[in-house]
Design brief:
The protein has seven helices and nine strands, in the order H-H-E-E-E-H-E-H-E-H-E-E-H-E-H-E. By secondary structure, it is of the alpha/beta class. The chain is globular and about 40 Å long. The N terminus is likely disordered.
Length: about 300
C-alpha cells in the first residue's frame, strides 16, 4: 500500500512539473492581454508584416453611394472572426480623378492583419483635400454608427489614410479630429504645407520619383512642420512614383501595418519595425522619424 501511495505521489509531482511551463505560458499570455487589451493577432515577424495576407480571414461588404450623402460609398473589409472582440478601424481615400479601385488593394491586406478597413469613393473625383478630409471623417462616423459591421469596431481606435489629394485629406482629417490614433498620407498633395496643429501620430510616405507631388514641396515640408513632440515618421520610397501607392507594394504595407498596429492598437510588439529607424535599401530612399514615444 505504501508503495502505491509513494508511486501516486511521484506521478502527481511529475505531472505538476510538466504542467508548470504551460501554466507559466498561460499566465504570461494573460498578463500581456491585461497590459494591452487591444493587442490582436500572433507575435509579428518581418515575414508576417510583409506577407500579402495576415492571420485573419477577411469578409467584405459594399456600401452603395445611394445609401450615403456625405461621401461616395465604398467597401468595408473586416476580420471574419469575432473571437478576438472589436477591432480598430481605418478609412482610406483615393486621390484626384481616382476611384476607390485605386486604393482597394489596401483593404484586404490591412484587414487580414486585424483591422476593419473602409476604402471609399469621394463625392466627385475632383474633390479637393479639405473636402476629402471631411469625407474621411464622415465615412468613419458611418462605419462606427450606421454600418452593418459597427459592432465589430472600437470607435475609440480609428485612423485615416489616403493617396495624393486623399493624402492631403488625411492631414486635414487629423487636424480636424485630434482623437484619431493614426494618419498615413501616401504621396500626399495639399496647398497647405504646414501642419503644426496635428497631434495624431503620422507616417508621411513620399516617393523619390514623384513629379505630381514632389517630396521637396509636399511630403518633406509636411513632415518637417509636424510638432517635434509628435510620434512621426517620413518614409521616402526608392524607385517610386506618385502612383506607386495605387498598386500592391510591400514596403508601403509593411510600414503601414506597423504604424497602425503601434498607434491604433498600442501594440508595442511592432516597435521593432520602427526603431531603430529603417535604413536606406532597394525600396527605401530615406527614413526619418522618432522612435515611438513611451515605448
Amino acid at each position: 500500500m505504501k508503495r502505491h501511495t509513494a508511486a501516486a505521489a511521484a506521478a502527481l509531482s511529475c505531472l505538476a512539473f510538466l504542467a508548470a511551463p504551460a501554466a507559466t505560458a498561460t499566465a504570461a499570455t494573460t498578463a500581456a492581454a491585461a497590459d494591452n487589451p487591444y493587442q490582436r493577432g500572433p507575435a509579428p515577424t518581418v515575414a508576417s508584416i510583409e506577407a500579402a495576407r495576415g492571420s485573419y480571414a477577411v469578409s467584405q461588404t459594399s456600401v452603395s453611394s445611394l445609401a450615403v450623402t456625405t461621401f461616395g460609398g465604398g467597401t468595408i473589409y473586416y476580420p471574419t472572426s469575432t473571437s478576438d472582440g472589436t477591432f480598430g478601424a481605418v478609412v482610406i481615400s483615393p486621390g484626384f480623378t481616382a476611384y476607390e479601385s485605386s486604393i482597394a488593394w489596401l483593404g484586404p491586406r490591412l484587414a487580414s492583419q486585424g483591422f476593419v478597413v473602409f476604402t471609399i469613393d469621394t463625392l466627385t473625383t475632383l474633390d479637393q483635400p479639405d473636402s476629402r478630409g471631411r469625407q474621411l471623417l464622415a465615412a468613419l462616423d458611418y462605419l462606427t454608427q450606421r454600418s452593418t459591421v459597427r459592432a465589430r469596431v472600437d470607435a475609440s481606435r480609428l485612423g485615416v489614410m489616403g493617396h495624393s489629394m486623399g493624402g492631403g485629406g488625411t492631414l486635414e482629417a487629423a487636424k480636424s479630429r485630434p482623437s484619431l490614433k493614426a494618419a498615413i498620407p501616401l504621396t500626399g498633395w495639399n496647398t497647405d504645407k504646414t501642419w503644426p496643429e496635428i497631434t495624431t501620430p503620422t507616417l508621411i510616405v513620399g516617393a523619390d520619383g514623384d513629379t505630381v507631388a514632389p517630396v521637396a514641396t509636399h511630403s518633406e515640408p509636411f513632415y518637417e512642420s509636424l510638432p517635434a513632440s509628435l510620434d512621426k515618421a517620413y518614409l521616402e520610397l526608392n524607385g517610386a512614383t506618385h502612383f506607386t501607392p495605387n498598386s500592391s507594394d510591400t514596403t508601403i504595407a509593411k510600414y503601414s501595418v506597423s504604424w497602425l498596429k503601434r498607434f491604433i492598437d498600442d501594440d508595442t510588439r511592432y516597435d521593432q519595425f520602427l526603431c531603430p529607424l529603417p535604413r536606406p535599401s532597394l525600396t527605401i530612399e530615406e527614413y526619418r522619424g522618432t522612435c515611438p514615444l513611451g515605448s
